[in-house]
Amino acid sequence: MNVVERLRRQVGELGGRLPSESSLSGYLFWLSRPRFWFYLAGPVVVGTVYAADSIAELFSPLSVALFAFFLVPANVLLYGVNDVFDAGIDAENPKKEGREVRYRGGRAVAGVVLASGLAGLAFVPFLSIPALLAFGGFYLLAIEYSAPPLRLKTTPLLDSLSNGLYVLPAVVAYTALAGEYPPVAAVLGGWLWAMGMHTFSAIPDIEPDFEAGIETTATVLGERWTYVYCGACWLVAALAFLLVHPFFGALLLEYPLIVFGVVVSDTDVERAYWWYPAINTLVGTAMSLGGFWVLVYG
Fold first, then answer.
1. Within-domain flag for 158
2. Are 139 and 165 in contact (CB under 8 A)?
3. Which domain covers residue 110, as residue numbers?
């Protein structure tokens, strides 16, 4: 058996050990989008490693607790609220087949989503006012992205803009440790990155959203111009991060290059969409290792 075949078999065995959506715990596991857990928890690591003054502070109880909260409960809240208010739309969405689950309702599910949101209240006594403001901003956008009265996901441009919420865990963690907000250029770059990432992920939903009568940035622009929009967001994000450090700018520059490659190669966007959890994890890991190197040897 060659290496590729062995790897495929190991991946298949791992998939067989993952919980089934037929059980409540398995359903909640898939509702929380495990492939995307690090979209919220990863920024906590980045914010923590650049704010910490020592290894001990890097692994302080507050840092670990923030990571744990944004790893699972925050994802259950974010995607649970999304699925509750998108249940009708998702009934015909092919993206919900295989890698995601359709909302099935029930008091137990709603209770877990609510409890996941309330879990964040435990941080209130331990965070400074600036950190709490960023934490509150995350809650506001995470809920109102999908829920009435704002339901930001159905308003073109605001749906994209509101997805800066993925940067706020890093702002919370950095501010909690450093006592001040991170550099404006870093927040701006991260916000633009999240806007591009969100809108790229909306491309596979263009047809289902259009049929459901929902307007988004992607449905208004159309597939080709949405690629342009994403590339522009990522290019400006790279330039913003370049102001923070050339290393960051170089890392972020791969995003507009990748979307350009997707377009010129005519790669199926539904296939490319699933590359990004790995790409984002690698970029976030590189950022974190850079900060860890400075912390230890700087």
1. yes
2. no
3. 23-297
Summarize pLDDT for 57-86 with one digit per residue, the tens: 999 999 999 999 999 999 999 999 999 898
Give the pair of three-digit tokens for residue 110: 């709603």
Looking at residue 119, the DSSP 8-state letter turns out to be G
Tens-digit pLDDT profile for residues 220-234: 999 999 999 999 999
Per-residue pLDDT of 126-143, as tens digits, reads: 999 999 999 999 999 999
Q: What is the pTM of this model?
A: 0.90
Q: What does the alpha-carbon distance between residue 46 and residue 37 come to, in Å, rounded to a whole number?
A: 15
Separation of CA 97 from chain center: 20
Closest to 233 (Cα-Cα) out of 217, 245, 247: 217
Does 12 map to a domain? Answer: no
In this structure, is residue 133 part of a structural domain? yes
How far apart CA 47 and CA 289 sit, in angstroms, is 12
Q: Is residue 16 part of a domain?
A: no
SS3 22: coil
Closest C-alpha to 192, from 147, 244, 149, 155: 244
